[in-house]
Design a protein that fits this description.
Chain lengths: 749, 336
């Protein structure tokens, strides 16, 4: 690949203000809008073949026979593989920390059992995509079907598992003067990034390069080398640009292993692009959750107890747990808490993390219950939360590293005009429509993971930053360029960021909203080391320009090394390097994880926010739209507010979908997700996106990194659906506890 | 997708001649006209439609909007949906048609989609579009998966034990209320079919959707002259704000004089197996006072024969409200 393709900077990209906290457009923007950014499914290699998998059309049973004779005769077809004629794959060993993770652990074709509709049972390889599709369609598979179970109502199979407990929640609830006891349901939601999952696999001898739609290339390599049975160093994973993932592209899925295996067998590079329909089956989803939430409270609104009992669907073989109770133990001050969880296995594809896993469905339940409590008590919902603001994380007994939830609510209330609220149902009108207002609080864990980065300062004054993380489309290229510019004092237009290649220094996953927090310390350390190496070259060596000078007396500014006392002594980078006969000054840096680290033993690390929704409602036609949204986020210091705002806006739009539209429906008779396309799986359109007012409080969180930055990829979705359903209640009097809100529900209003 | 032969027809007789070789003019026919292709090509990619020959009719002209001798409008089969929606005469005299078109699909699709293609667009029933599942419309005799399945969006009027698929078109609802006429040309000459008679009920042959015979080409649609004093509106209800088919929609054409309905034409979409004229409600309203009670009664009457399925019972109520509100809009009793 050419340098231009790999590099983040488009030739001629505009130079933008070089200040942290400025509003820098994405440096990769021009590449993307001009179509020059090479995404995985754009990768085209000499002699490349196309693979199209054959999905099962039953949800449970056995494969009796596979007849590929007709398929093999079709034009352009090179091979059809299935269990028995493809070299088997291994399972990967259990993960260690955030390495070696995979949700669907069974390699393709491991046995002849079908456990979900759409499971790959064969794969056709041909010269063109169309030929491969025709061949895949022509493969005849006979099944012995068993009864399948895609029942949406969830019941425990085993006793609940305790996630968090303190005090005596049962007794406190029993004797509480005011009680809320409701069950909240969130449906199966599908990530549906616009970019389809894809793999291009190219072998050279026993080495393979995988072009991947991956949010975690290092992990991808860790899993794939094991499953393919080759040395780790023989696997290279590349992911330069992503058309988003929302968590669906974090861990490897069966198509990737299949593409690699097939390419090895057929002896040519192979491209496999997952169909939109298969994206509802084989690459994960947010599982259906069913959450009973109980609150015991005093008449003064003080919380006495919380019970959070939740179940989620998972697949037959894998135990994916949706961590709905994540925020429950620390969100509010309450002496008695019980959080328990259980799984319900179904004949569905394996679920996976989706934007704000756990907290997003969990906060829908908790914040809805809080709203119901506020109504039961006739207390303003902001005031109710304020009265229960904790002084510390009461589950871990640790101080918060930085928590400004009350300020989020205050600022939000002001921006929204909350003081004008008439709390009576249906009391507020505008332009012939009924208006409903609702709010919810939210949180999302703040973390940092291990990361390494390298920085090179070259003779021509350009800087190259490298780390094997990836940019999901959120602006990682840009933020790392900013950090390098800040640390070296070299202007942004001279900084080139290279990501998305496992041959670079190991970087973090693009998940959990950690990338920024994790990788910026590594990059800024690396940049400082590189500057130091430049200063060392300035003082030591036979031709050093400042030979004998003390290191501390020198500075590097404006691309020159000079004596601090006398900036006019400046020597340009090029000259320093030339005199030392060095190509570049280099530095490596790293950051370490907070998981089990010092900070996590001392602090409770979370971001917070407050979401305010307005809906407009026409009772005559049951038509409801979100008409306004205010989101106030406390996620530390914003390094680059422009893409950060974009993240929150996008999450709010997704939250509108979560609240009002999105649900994958399984046909009980076929066991198939039946609305597996973007016409029948309804997501928000532009017309559904109201004006969204985003505010960042911008209080630095010094515990996480020197910049005080936390991530913002997920928190915008947390609490959003609860704020909307609260507004729906306020407008219509209908409390919807099972998402999405449907016209059916609203006809009762 | 199956292999197919592509022919660009240069004249109407040529197109008809080729298509007449088909044994059936219905949707499983091996020879098919292609206009905008937004329905047909989509379904071919899904293997739902498997024609062996496509006759491209985009070069036949048939793309003008003209006044007829009686003062009505003649709309060529190949007039694009966007052109029709934005035609000044349509916007002025047949507002309901413009509104219906603009509520459908997306700007990009409307720029390509044609009048005849829209008229003949196929159902969005998820089982029809999925070849792994039984569907009598796609494969006669295979059964109907929608009955007892995911049928929230499907029909409550005109269903049979073989099919409950909705006619999804917005345009068709407006044309029904406007009492349009569909003009065909076939091997035996031309025919004019009243809009109401053009689409067929599914009955035991849901694969047969219209009166078209092998070779029949829709050449144009005519609209009767606009009645002075009438107001017309289209109201579409759906889950999201745009880019979605109707759960219920109503096209109303009314004339009010002296506080009473003098002329009423009503049709509904999203709820019927074909575009549905609400004749009982039309009769009930004609001559009746324009007030809330009358409108509600008529709307309830309109849905009297609804037969909901397992998941779409709400459509009876929704459609009733939709029709009532469209009447309020058309009579100025409501503004939003
Ligand atoms: C994503 C999406 C969303 C949509 N949303 C909506 C919506 O909200 N509301 C709505 O109403 N529609 C909607 N549509 C449907 C759209 O309106 C139709 O696809 C379009 O009108 C079809 O026109 P066409 O010219 O492309 O037809 P084609 O695909 O070319 O043809 C359709 C059928 O008509 C036949 N045919 C075409 N012309 C003639 C002729 N002159 N004589 C005889 N037979 C003919 C063809 O053989 C074929 O069977 C949507 C479509 C898509 C893809």
């Amino acid at each position: 690949m050419s340098r231009a393709r790999e590099s983040s900077r488009a030739p001629g990209a505009p130079e933008a203000p070089k200040v942290i906290g400025g509003k820098l457009p994405r440096i990769d923007g021009p590449l993307k809008v001009s179509g020059r950014a090479v995404y995985t499914s754009d990768v085209s290699l000499d002699g490349m073949l196309y693979a199209v998998p054959v999905p099962s059309t039953i949800a449970s049973g056995r494969i009796v026979s596979i007849d590929a004779a007709a398929a093999r005769k079709l034009a352009g077809v090179r091979a059809v593989y299935y269990r028995g004629n493809l070299r088997p794959f291994f399972r990967s060993a259990p993960p260690q920390g955030f390495s070696g993770l995979i949700d669907e652990k069974r390699p393709p074709f491991e046995d002849d059992v079908v456990r979900y509709y759409g499971q790959y049972v064969a794969v056709a390889v041909a010269q063109t995509m169309e030929q491969a599709k025709a061949a895949a369609d022509a493969v005849r598979v006979r099944y012995a079907a068993d009864a399948h179970n895609v029942e949406p109502h969830l019941a425990t199979e085993k006793p609940f598992r305790t996630e968090s407990e303190r005090g005596n929640a049962d007794a406190a609830f029993q004797s509480a003067p005011v009680k809320i006891d409701q069950t909240y349901v969130t449906p199966t939601e599908v990530h549906n990034p616009i970019e389809l999952h894809a793999t291009v696999a190219a072998w050279e001898g026993d080495r393979v390069t995988l072009y991947e739609t991956s949010q975690a290339i290092m992990n991808h390599r860790e899993v794939l080398y094991q499953m393919l049975g080759v040395p780790k160093e023989n696997v290279r994973v590349v992911s330069h640009f992503l058309g988003s993932g929302f968590g669906g592209k974090l861990w490897p899925w069966t198509h990737s292993i299949l593409a690699a295996g097939v390419a090895r067998e057929v002896g040519a590079p192979v491209k496999l692009v997952v169909s939109r329909q298969s994206m509802f089956q084989t690459v994960g989803h947010r599982p259906r959750t069913q959450q009973r939430f109980r609150i015991g409270a005093g008449h003064d609104g003080k919380l006495l107890s919380l019970h959070h009992e939740y179940l989620n669907q998972t697949s037959i073989l894998d135990d994916y747990g949706e961590d709905c109770g994540e925020a429950t133990p620390f969100m509010y001050s309450v002496p008695n808490v019980r959080v328990i969880s259980a799984l319900a296995h179904r004949n569905i594809g394996t679920p996976t993390a989706m934007r704000g896993p756990g907290a997003v469905p969990g906060l829908f339940a908790m914040e809805s219950a809080m709203d119901e409590l506020a109504i039961a008590l006739n207390i303003d919902p902001i005031e109710l939360r304020r009265r229960n603001e904790p002084q510390q994380d009461e589950s871990s007994k640790l101080p918060f590293s930085s928590r400004h939830l009350v300020e989020c609510m205050q600022v939000g209330a002001e921006k929204f005009g909350w003081a004008r609220r008439d709390a009576r149902v249906g009391a507020m009108k505008r332009d012939g429509l009924t208006i409903g207002w609702g709010m919810a609080a939210c949180s999302w864990g703040a973390m940092r993971s291990d990361a390494q980065a390298s920085v090179e300062i070259a003779r021509d004054g350009t800087v190259t930053v490298t780390t094997a993380t990836q940019d999901v489309g959120t602006g990682t290229y840009t933020v790392l360029a900013l950090v390098a510019a800040e640390a070296t004092g070299i202007s942004l237009d001279k900084i080139d960021v290279r990501l998305g290649d496992t041959s670079l220094p190991p970087g973090p996953i693009s998940g959990g909203s950690w990338v920024t927090a994790s990788v910026i310390p590594a990059v800024s350390n690396a940049a400082r080391v590189a500057v130091r190496s430049l200063l060392t070259m300035s003082t030591t060596g036979p031709n050093a320009p400042f030979a004998g000078a003390k290191f501390e007396d020198l500075q590097f500014a404006n691309g020159r090394v000079s004596r601090k006392r006398d900036p006019s002594t400046g020597v340009p980078i090029g000259e320093v390097l030339a005199r030392a006969n060095a190509r570049a000054a280099v530095g490596d840096g790293q950051s370490s994880t907070t998981l089990g680290g010092e900070e996590s033993k001392k602090y409770s690390l979370h971001s917070y926010g407050a979401q305010f929704a307005e809906v407009s409602w026409q009772p005559e036609t049951a038509r409801l739209r979100v008409s306004r949204f205010v989101s106030v986020i406390d996620a530390g210091r914003m390094l680059n507010p422009k893409p950060a705002r974009n993240q929150i806006e996008g999450a709010v739009v997704m939250g509108i979908g979560m609240a009002l539209f999105e649900e994958a429906r399984y046909d009980k008779r076929y066991g198939a997700p039946i609305n597996s396309n973007l016409a029948d799986y309804i997501v928000s359109t532009n017309a559904d996106a109201p004006p969204i007012d985003v505010t960042f409080l911008d209080h630095p969180d010094p515990v996480l990194n020197e910049f005080g930055a936390r991530g913002v990829g997920e928190i915008g979705l947390a609490g959003t659906a609860a704020a909307i359903t609260a507004a729906v209640y306020h407008a219509t009097g209908v409390r919807v506890r099972e998402l999405p809100v449907r016209i059916e529900d609203l006809l009762r209003g | 997708m199956e292999r197919f032969q592509y022919t660009r027809a240069r004249t109407v007789p040529e197109a008809i001649g080729i298509a007449a070789q088909s044994t059936t003019a219905q949707q499983s026919a091996p020879i098919r006209f292609v206009a905008g292709g937004t329905t047909l090509v989509d379904l071919m990619k899904l293997d739902v439609e498997r024609p062996t020959r496509l006759v491209d009719i985009n070069h036949l002209g048939l793309n003008a909007i003209e006044r007829t001798a009686d003062g009505g409008l003649k709309v060529g089969a190949l007039v694009r949906n966007s052109a029709l929606a934005q035609d000044p005469a349509v916007m002025r005299d047949y507002r309901v048609l413009s509104e219906a078109l603009l509520s459908g699909a997306s700007a990009q699709l409307r720029n390509v989609a044609t009048t005849s293609g829209n008229l003949l667009q196929r159902t969005r029933c998820m089982y029809f579009r999925n070849t792994a599942m039984a569907c009598n419309k796609r494969e006669p005799g295979s059964g109907c998966s929608a009955i007892g399945g995911e049928n929230r969006t499907l029909a409550i009027l005109g269903t049979s034990s073989q099919c409950i698929a909705t006619n999804p078109s917005d345009m068709n609802v407006a044309l029904a209320a406007l009492e349009a006429t569909v003009h065909l040309q076939g091997t035996k000459g031309t025919r004019a079919i009243a809009f109401q008679d053009f689409h067929l009920l599914p009955g035991d042959t849901p694969n047969r959707e219209t009166v078209l015979e092998p070779g029949d080409l829709v050449t144009h649609v005519t609209l009767p002259p606009p009645r002075s004093g009438t107001t017309s509106r289209y109201l579409k209800l759906r889950d999201r704000a745009s880019y979605e088919f109707a759960l219920a929609s109503a096209a109303v054409v009314v004339e009010v004089a002296g506080g009473r309905f003098r002329y009423v034409r009503l049709a509904m979409g999203g709820i019927g197996t074909k575009p549905w004229r609400m004749t009982a409600a039309e009769q009930a309203l004609t001559g009746a006072p324009v007030d809330e009670a009358t409108i509600r009664q008529a709307a309830t009457l309109a849905l009297r024969d609804a037969r909901p399925q397992s998941q779409n019972g709400f459509k009876v109520e929704l459609a009733t409200r939709c029709l009532a509100h469209a009447l309020r809009l058309a009579t100025g009793m409501a503004s939003v």
